[in-house]
Amino acid sequence: MATLEVTIDSLGETLARAAEAWKAAERVGEPATASTLSFASWDNLHRVLSPKRLEIVRAMTGRAPLSIREVARRVGRDFKSVHGDVDMLWRNGVIDKAERGVVFPYDRIHINFEIDAAA
Q1: What is the value of pTM for the model shown?
Q2: Domain with residues 3-112, CATH architecture
Q3: Mean pLDDT (whole number) for 82-103
């Protein structure tokens, strides 16, 4: 099952994870299958993966490419607002464009973050 792992990490942590994945792929000889999308803060994550956008992702999960009009129909929203949300998801690497529309190329999404105590 293909999973998109969403994290909140600093730039340094994200670059370190990318370097480690690169080294692992060189050792094994094939690219890693894990996909990770990192955000610098909770605010950034929530801005991109707002409840309405997560509803779009949920509607697309496990499906073949869908037109934006079909996505809008599935979530019961107007085309213009869904188009803007789909564009935001695409620009941030959550979904992909395909020949016949847009696709969420994963079976599930896992959001992993920690909240530390205030100083």
Answers
A1: 0.77
A2: Orthogonal Bundle (1.10)
A3: 94
